[in-house]
Protein 1
Amino acid sequence: MTAVSFVELEVKSRFAGFTLVELLIAIAILGILYSLAMPSYARYIQESRRNEAQQTMFQTATHLERIYTRQGGYPKNYDVPVSEYYTFTYVPLTAIDDDYFRAYKLSAAPKSGSGQTGDICGTLSIDHQSKLGASSDGCW
């Protein structure tokens, strides 16, 4: 090889990769994008889990109405759905007799440590008159 080819080889190898400063700038840009996108993604996940709980509550309320139509009252005991993110509770109200009731309240409270704990809507509820409740407005 001649001296000229060593210079060409040195020039080519010098431009073959990224510098440390360029990599740090790229990492900083990715960090900024992550910090902007992550809260929106977390909020989206909370909303989708809340919507799933609401659908479960509507399905449960529909089933309770079928029981009311057939039996003339809401049951004393009812097996509520199980969720990874919410604790569902069924409370019968206003007794007709020992086994059936005229009213109920169904609620869904976020489970602590489940990712729904910080949800602004908090505990969701629905009753026998389809009155919807939540810790803040705009949750249903």
Protein 2
Amino acid sequence: MTLDTTIARIEALLYNEPCFTSAALLAHDETATLNEAAEAKLDAMGVSSMLVGDEGDGIPASMPKLMGLLRTVCGKDLGFGLGYMITTFMAATNVWQAGSAVQRRRLSDWLRAGRRVSIAYHELAHGNDMLGNALYATRTEGGYLLNGSKSVINNIGRAAALVLQARTDKAPGGRSHSLFLIDKADLDPNCFDILPRVQTDGVRGCQIAGIRFRDCFVADAYLMGKVGSGTDHAFHAFQITRGLLPGASLGAIARALDTTVRYVGTRRLYGATALDIPHVRAQLAESWIELMLAKRLCRASARGLHVVPEEMSILGSVCKFIVPLRMRAVLKRLALVLGSRYYLREGEAALFEKVVRDYPAVSLGHASSLSCQAAIIPQLPQILRRFYGGTIEQSEWTMALFDDSPLPRFDIGRLRLSCAGKDTLLGSLRHWPRRLEGMRGDGVLDETDYAQLQRLVTALEQQVAGLRKSRFEPHDEAAFEATRRYAWVQCAMAALGAWMGGWATGVATHPKVMACLLDFVLHQIAQTPFQIDPSIERELVDDLIGRAKASA
């Protein structure tokens, strides 16, 4: 079964199976219990095995299609998707990166059997400071003795295995931690405890707890990679999760938007529907714009794993920083539209409040938005020097970030801890003026649309030029502000690329809508109020109404 057919079958389940109805999902949220019936339906289809590729490395062939699968699994219930597949996917990326052939085969066996794999990095005392983590693996004959605890681990009680980060050297620095792939069945049950479950506001169905080890023996065979290489391997694996997980979350946002549109289309106020209120229409149109920008950046990021893996340290970080942040803003905007209805757990909008509580988990994980900004800051000066240091030749892969051309196989060995100044997405900014001229020459753009788009592209380049004046000290507020502006420019580049690459469909193909997206980005960079053209607003709201009806 292919990823495409699996996605189609899951979508059919979401609409036809009682275990996926709003009532069922809310019942499990109320009781903070696993939706075992839904998991059994997906297990019967072998969904977990889609995390296993056909090649010897065990990596799925298509990262964009894998992102689509994760998005579909999460689409109706983010918490369910996190427990059923996302956590195991996050663990799997570490095995793809650091595991031996034997360890990859063991992972494949667990996934094909529908088992879960947990990932244990977090220690609450150290937050996102992985180098400060203290769980210790002491060398002993034939292996290591584990002592210490890990916190907030999803599925730890029911997982067949776990990827564990442990300190193997008391010295500070990046060479003091190692990664282990541990089969829980092989552990002495007297040497570890599963800690009490953590109560959470969102993703309430997830079984989140901790684990404590006391002189717990693990064999040498469980070590992934070399001793002391755990931090490097983790940062490489994070490039995959940062590149795909924001896109996986967008199904929930699209569903929340559809729910809002359906509700305001039936809510009667002042002799008309709420959908006729100008402020409501403006909020919905801006939500459409933000979701469209997010989709395009996430798609470029997923394709980037194949096309420019050496640049994923920057592209994945941009995606993980700005997409969850902006989607939370979209949810806040939609909550204002729904008013008191947004926190009610009955009626048409019943699931909306659950999405609002669940979605912050997307910003956290093993890389918060803030830590992603911190990963961008040291790379930006070299990116800007390269951008302005000479002629940027258009790579043969530039358009492959955006179009539907066949992708090369994802080569995980090409991931790098730094992009070394290479930024194909930003570099595309130099090529759009010439492509716009070509579109005018081919009659695709009239003079008015051409002039407007060229003006907006020039304004974006001026924004990039302004970044050169920024300070990039890691603890300087100005550096974080520069990453915010840079990330918005990258959203614009991804949107332009998708439009020119022929990926846009429907109303999004219109030049004036493309101009609207760029204008919105520029206002976000400047942090000034955005006023949408009434004719564009009408087109976007009509598109939303059509989408909402189709998904009902």
